[in-house]
Amino acid sequence: MEHDLYDLLGVSRTASLAEIKKAYRELARKFHPDANPNDAAAEKKFKDIAMAYEILSDDEKRSQYDQFGAVGSAGSPFQGAGGISDIFEAFFGGQSPFGSSGFRGQQRNSGEDVEITLKITLEEVVNGGEAEFTLELALQCETCTGSGSQNGESELCGQCDGHGQLQQVRQSILGQIMSTTVCPSCQGFGTLIIDPCSSCGGSGVEKAEKSFSIEVPKGVDSGITQRLSGMGPAGPRGGASGDIHVRYVVEQHSRFSRNGENLIEQLWIPVTSAALGAEIEYETFDGMQKLKIPAGSRTGDKFRYSGLGVPRLQRRGRGDLIVEIVIDTPQNLSKASKRLMIELAEELGETIEEKPKRSRKSKQNE
Ligand SMILES: [Zn+2]
Ligand SMILES: [Zn+2]
What number of other Cβ atoms are within 10 A of residue 248's Cβ? Predict the structure, then answer.
């Protein structure tokens, strides 16, 4: 998106959320594809304003955009849990205000969008990586290179005179109502194929498997969807390809959990290390680090590795890695250990409520 998002919505950079909402609502009605049949410019405008609204109506995305301009969120292929159609639904209660032909009704010639779920590891979120997946989807027919025609010839559709749609005028109590339907002869293409391609039967597309390899965006989180523009199913008869929406699911990690941009590990250490202090080799996604546990550490004490957390999605910087100490109480003590513990308790002046009886002690410990 090369335009300024504020210009797109016709609001000032200091516009309130209410002003942004109002501007979007008016523009969305004006440029909605159903109100502008077969108008590619209006359709593009509609998508642009929807994207502008999606960013500017979200405090966090808006401040990112203000900060980084076109380099940051503008034209971002990422969406949160909701997409443009969700915004649209939020406004119009799930019903298109422009009749029943629907949001994508006009994109007759474009391939459909598909959504896939991609499982990735937390390590990939932190360090990035390549993710691969295979889809069976409509691809351009190689025999006719998508035209659907054996010899490349087609003729103007007689029923709609090449318009691809038929208009009907009805009388109602509100006056004349004009409605538009897709031409049944040419399915909206405006032309008829004279000699359909023998491989694809005239559709211009064939189902086939296709492998994809994409870069995992650093900092991505479960529920975030990435749009791979134009990488989806090919449109019939040479139409543009749809998009693939990749919805990420981050698998649970055995050691680290994620809290926003921070990584957290609860690290169990022996009571002796906590009491005496220790310096241990600590493995992170960024390799081995020294972890110095001071003498006298307690459960809940935290140690922080600044900048070793989760990278910020499409922004600079990373969160922190926080190590939270949990003291591992020794269990199943041997006779000798138990004696030392009692000795220690006595040395520290601690009272032991239940002193083991000498006569039974040996049996208890076997
Ligand atoms: Zn073909
Ligand atoms: Zn027709």
Answer: 21
Single residue among 108, 139, 164 that ends a domain in this structure: 108
- Minimum-distance ligand to the CA of 182? 2
Structural domain including 338 reads 332-366
Instruction: Give 266 Cα–ligand 1 centroid separation in angstroms.
Output: 59
Token pair of 1 as six digits: 């998106």
CA of 156 to the centre of ligand 2 (A): 8
> Cα–Cα distance between 276 and 328 in angstroms, integer?
14
Q: Which ligand is nearest to the CA of 143?
A: 1
Q: Number of structural domains, the chain? A: 4
For 318, which DSSP code? B
Q: State residue 73's pLDDT score.
A: 37
Question: Mutual orientation of helices 84-92 and 17-31 as an angle, nearest 10°?
Answer: 100
* Nearby residues for ligand 2 (ion, Cβ within 5 Å): 157, 159-160, 183, 185-186
Coil, helix or strand at residue 249: strand
Average pLDDT over residues 229-258: 94
Instruction: Kindly identify the ligand whose nearest atom is closest to the C-alpha of 154.
Output: 2
SS3 content of the chain, % helix, strand, coil (to 5): 25, 30, 45
Q: Which amino acid is at 153?
A: E
- Judged by its nearest atom, the ligand closest to the C-alpha of residue 199 is 1
Same domain, 122 and 215: yes
**Residues 233 and 295 occupy one common structural domain:** no
37 phi/psi in degrees, rounded to 5: -60, 140
- The whole-angstrom separation of Cα 182 and Cα 167 is 9
Written as six digits, the tokens of 159 are 């029923």
Work out the pLDDT band at 13, boundaries 50, 70, 90: confident
Q: Which ligand has its closest atom nearest to the C-alpha of 152?
A: 1
CA of 235 from ligand 1 middle (Å) equals 12
Taking the C-alpha atoms of residue 310 and residue 321, their distance in angstroms, rounded to an integer, is 8
Q: Which residue has the tokens 């035209």?
A: 147
Q: Which ligand is nearest to the CA of 162?
A: 2
Q: Output the CA 192–ligand 2 centroid distance in Å.
A: 8
Give the number of the ligand closest to the Cα of residue 145: 1
Distance (Å, rounded) from C-alpha 17 to C-alpha 33? Answer: 25
* Predicted local distance difference test score (pLDDT) of residue 82: 41
In this structure, are residues 139 and 235 in contact, taking their beta carbons and an 8 Å threshold?
no
